[in-house]
Amino acid sequence: MESYYPVLLKVKGRRCLVAGGGSVAQRKVRGLLEAGADVVLAAPQVTPRLAELARQGDIRLLAREYESGDLSGAMLVFALTDQRHINARIAEEARRAGIPVNVADEGEAGDFILPAVLRRGPLILTVSTSGASPAYAGQIKEQLDKTFGEELGVYVDWLGRLRELAGRVIPDVGLRRELLREAVQYPPPEDMEDFNENRFMLYIKELEQKVIERGVQHGQQDNYSGN
Ligand SMILES: C[C@@]1(CC(=O)O)c2cc3[nH]c(cc4nc(cc5[nH]c(cc(n2)[C@H]1CCC(=O)O)[C@@](C)(CC(=O)O)[C@@H]5CCC(=O)O)C(CC(=O)O)=C4CCC(=O)O)c(CCC(=O)O)c3CC(=O)O
Ligand SMILES: NC(=O)C1=CN([C@@H]2O[C@H](COP(=O)(O)OP(=O)(O)OC[C@H]3O[C@@H](n4cnc5c(N)ncnc54)[C@H](O)[C@@H]3O)[C@@H](O)[C@H]2O)C=CC1
Fold it and tell me: Siroheme synthase central domain location, by residue (predicted)?
């Protein structure tokens, strides 16, 4: 079994070439669009949903078989046809062009594989079995879906704003770090929708006070090292 290296890629506005227009392509295109990719899809037949996306202008459809050269200028390539030899040919062309490729019918033949993905605003939970059992990755995602509600997205958004604010108002790196670690010990506040900067400042002050008190207890109030 391969040992894969997980990353989160920035694909916004970047061209991603998808060959194939079946249910697998539909799932992967949805993930690409969620991340703002510029999707070009080559396939003689596509699902109704993919046809609709093309009609709406959300993806560019080349309504024909994949042709050599279609992948030029792409950041990522997806070989998702039901023709094993075609997928292998596309993977070979991508490799020659130095473009990472995902191969649907033989994961290990590609350069990268996709995890099951659950999004809650900026919080992204991903699950992979390294190709051992895609169905199990999907099942764990379903379990996470029940555990992690939509409010987690609001909470993480809020933590992002707290962090941005802390960056502006707390120059001391060590204190800031203590504070931000402390902040995630809090349960999500009930009234996050009523967020305003004053409330935020109160929250930060409260946390800051806690950190300082703890520093005093340990006789380290002037000794935040930032490490
Ligand atoms: C290697 C990988 C490469 C890649 O596609 O990137 C790959 C490869 C293959 N999948 C196959 C089959 C199935 N794939 C799914 C579902 C998903 N497959 C996904 C990823 C991956 N699939 C990568 C590994 C990820 C990992 O292991 O963690 C998910 C997680 C993400 C996504 O696709 O977006 C998505 C779930 C998303 C969700 O639920 O949210 C189901 C379940 C279903 O359809 O309900 C089945 C049938 C049951 C089964 O086989 O388990 C086959 C055999 C094809 C054949 O028989 O011809 C191959 C070929 C091979 O084994 O190499
Ligand atoms: N990686 C994964 O998560 C999974 C992978 N698979 C594999 O992925 C393959 C595709 O699965 P589905 O989408 O369900 O198949 P599908 O049969 O629904 O769709 C196949 C698509 O490939 C297109 N196609 C055929 N020849 C082509 C060519 N020369 N150029 C461009 N497009 C071409 C067809 O027009 C069609 O749109 C399956 O053969 C299977 O081996 C299947 C399930 C999950």
Answer: 120-145
Q: Residue 226's closest CA among 186, 182, 194, 179?
A: 179
Residue 192 to residue 116: CA distance in whole angstroms: 29
CATH topology of domain 15-114: Rossmann fold (3.40.50)
Q: Say which ligand is closest to the CA of 63.
A: 2
State pLDDT tens for residues 33-46: 999 999 999 999 99
pLDDT in tens, 138-184: 999 999 999 888 888 888 888 888 888 888 888 888 888 888 888 88
Coil, strand, or helix at residue 125?
Answer: strand
ipTM of the complex: 0.96
Q: Start-end ranges of CATH 3.40.50.720 in the chain?
A: 15-114
> Which residue's CA is the nearest one to ligand 1's atom 5?
104
